[in-house]
Amino acid sequence: MTAPVLVIGEALVDIVSNGKPRNGKNGSKATPGGSPANVAVGLARLGVSTELVTRFGTDPYGDQLGAHLFGNGVQLAPGSVEPGFRTSTATATLDAAGVAKYQFDISWEPPALTLNRGCPAVHTGSIATVLEPGADAIRKFLSELADKPVTVTLDPNARPTITPDPVSTWAAVRALAGMSDLVKLSDEDCEFLRAGSTPDEIAAELLSVDRTKCVVITRGGDGAIGVTRTGRVEVAAPAIDVVDTVGAGDSFMSALIAGLQARGLLGATRLEGLDEEALHAVVDYAVKAAAITCTRHGADPPTAAEHTSYWS
User: What residue stretches are annotated with the Carbohydrate kinase PfkB domain (predicted)?
Assistant: First the structure.
């Protein structure tokens, strides 16, 4: 039996507000979130065995997170739940188009990071890769995977409120990307981190490092592009009625990993054999997973059965 995909990063509670009063109260709702945690849930819902290394407490928000993760079949690494630790939060305010902007109340220091034998992929990203002291632990861990038979994926998911300096943040992203086989960014990431550069220029810059074999850039309602050293694909997004975009990028990331695993491209292969046909298929699968999430409130990725039935 294949060991779980290992996801490393923050789990927190999203306090989502649409700014509209409801029953005399503001229109806020607390839901489980955190980009890496969302990716872990998305993977589990798509039938991929998944272990999450994170940290949250046993307060009410932590209990909510734990129930959500366990209820979706995500395994938690030892030390991820710590009594007395204050569970982190993110306040997400939605604009008229349902696009979320975030403010964070978070601290990050993961438990010990270890790689299980047979683990096909390690995924990390978002705040966990830039907020110390946890970010340093992730850098050291990824550096130890250079000669291991495991595929590393990265989603920087830039947060300007956490790291407002794009120059230093891009340097940190480049360092992590150099230890990753696949890097996924959004058009918003590109605009913040490399203003003035086109997506293809950014992809070429990241692919200049030997380890990195694929860069995928999402473009919201315009779909996504996937680039390798030997090919490029462009996938359009289907027309949908957007409720909000919370968790859409994370659904995309989890579906991307799941699609690659289904084609035997993870593990020791490290994406070797990822031709244009396979790349188009996995990016299309990921775009459609993100689209389903956008038709729902909050970070609510589809199951494999929902994905199939929705687009059949």
Answer: 5-302
